[in-house]
Amino acid sequence: MANSATYTGITPDLYNNLKGKLGAAGIELAGNSGRVSKQGVTADYAYEENSQTLQINNVQVSFPASMMFSPDKIIQKIDEAVRSAGGQVA
């Protein structure tokens, strides 16, 4: 079961676009690093502008989100958002 992912080719503009896409899904990324927690889903994130990478780590899913999602499913949703924004899954 995956609970982390690395994304490459994440330019500052793409990161801002991605923040908007994830924000629309209820996942608010504030700044370049931190921890998100929303309706039973928690994860750590770190964006490194110089290397143009985004790390998502420690994805955990508890109730009520666990009724519909697993960490794998959350990573898959983030993968889709990154790809649609123009980034790559490493």
TrEMBL record:
Name of the featured protein: Uncharacterized protein
Source organism of the structure: Rufibacter glacialis
